[in-house]
């Protein structure tokens, strides 16, 4: 654990560090105040992708971020698909 803030990943329902790769389960309660009311702040790419799909139900939405373009060649494939008209947003 490198002490960098963790990012919430909705699909995996996990907290992850984009720097060192550390991953942890989402706690049921806040480790500081013991509240069970946890709030996720920020407009992450998963949240934006979900909102776009909701606003434009017929559109082919693809997310391009550190997680989707992790594998070699994936970044170029997403751009290629967009240029070819396989992705709308």
The percent of residues in helical segments reads 10-25%
- How far is the first residue's CA from the last residue's CA? 35 Å
Largest sheet, spatial ordering of strands: 1-2-3
How many structural domains are formed by the residues?
2
Structural class: alpha+beta
Identify the overall geometry.
flat
**Element-by-element helix/strand order:** EEEHH
Biggest sheet, open or closed, and with what strands and sense?
Answer: 3 strands, antiparallel
Chain-averaged pLDDT: 89
How many DSSP H or I helices? 2
Task: Walk me through the structure.
This protein has 89 residues and is α+β, with helices and mostly antiparallel strands. It has two domains: 1-41, no CATH class; 43-89, no CATH class. Helices cover 24% and strands 10% of the residues. It contains two helices and three strands; from the N terminus they run βββαα. It has helices at 45-55, 74-83, and strands at 7-9, 14-16, 23-25. Strands 1-2-3 form a three-stranded antiparallel β-sheet, with no helix packed on it. Strand 2 (14-16) and strand 3 form a beta hairpin. The longest helix has 11 residues, at 45-55. The chain is flat, with a radius of gyration of 16 Å. The model has no long low-confidence stretch (mean pLDDT 89).
